[in-house]
Design brief:
single chain, 219 residues, alpha/beta, 6-stranded parallel sheet, 11 helices
């Protein structure tokens, strides 16, 4: 069995160190490089010639989707697999359109990650179960409903932020929002933090009251 060469691209050093230690004990896998941002990862790919690049969705200077787009164009033989805490549509579908062969969440098990790396190196597509479910739901959803679920930019909010804001205004909890939008509760909390920052508010209660006064939820 040939050795799978892996490049780690993540802006958190602790994450990279943890991944390296975990992968180094696996037979047939070699970590050949690390990168703290997208630009560094692109240079490292040309230098290290990995078989698989594990890509974080959010990185400084060049995010994961931008990196994968360039990797697909310059190094088509390299398999890009996103490993992220974010399971938002923009990242999932953006990464897959850019050429990623996989999208995993950081709550996956070590065995799942190792298996995904080996499968990606063989040219297979690897998706976390929640991501696969979102992809199937998107394919099945009628175009008219898709348009309804994607309201125009409002007050500088992204589509997903607008959806979360609309549900907060109805009194929905983070768990209920996560179930409704098919995202994790952690992702909802990230959006709440972003909304607090954009509206200049201190806590979720203030946010809910503000949105109840000003926000009409999407259909």
């Amino acid at each position: 069995m040939s050795t799978v060469r892996v490049l780690l691209a993540d802006d958190q050093e602790l994450i990279r160190q943890g991944l390296r230690k975990m992968l180094e004990i696996e037979e047939g896998i070699e970590v050949v490089g690390e990168a703290a941002d997208g630009e560094e990862a692109l240079r490292a790919t040309g230098r290290c010639r990995p078989d698989v690049v594990l890509v974080d969705a959010r990185m400084p200077r060049m995010n994961g989707v931008e990196l994968i787009t360039l990797l697909s164009a310059r190094y088509p033989a390299v398999a890009s697999v996103v490993l992220s805490t974010f399971d938002e549509d923009d990242y999932i579908f953006g990464a897959l359109r850019a050429g990623a062969v996989g999208y995993l969440l950081k709550d996956c098990t070590p065995a799942e990650l190792v298996d995904a790396i080996r499968r990606a190196a063989r040219g297979e597509t690897v998706l976390a179960s929640p991501v696969a479910a979102r992809l199937v739901a998107e394919i099945r959803r009628p175009a008219t409903r898709a348009l309804a679920d994607a309201p125009p930019d409002r007050e500088g909010l992204s589509v997903r932020e607008a959806q979360v804001a609309g549900l907060i205004s109805t009194g929905a909890t983070n768990r209920q929002i996560a179930d409704r939008l098919l995202i994790t509760e952690g992702t909802v909390k990230n959006h709440v933090t972003s909304l607090l920052r954009k509206y200049g508010l201190r806590d979720r209660t203030q946010l809910a009251l503000h949105l109840q006064r000003t926000h009409r939820p999407s259909p």
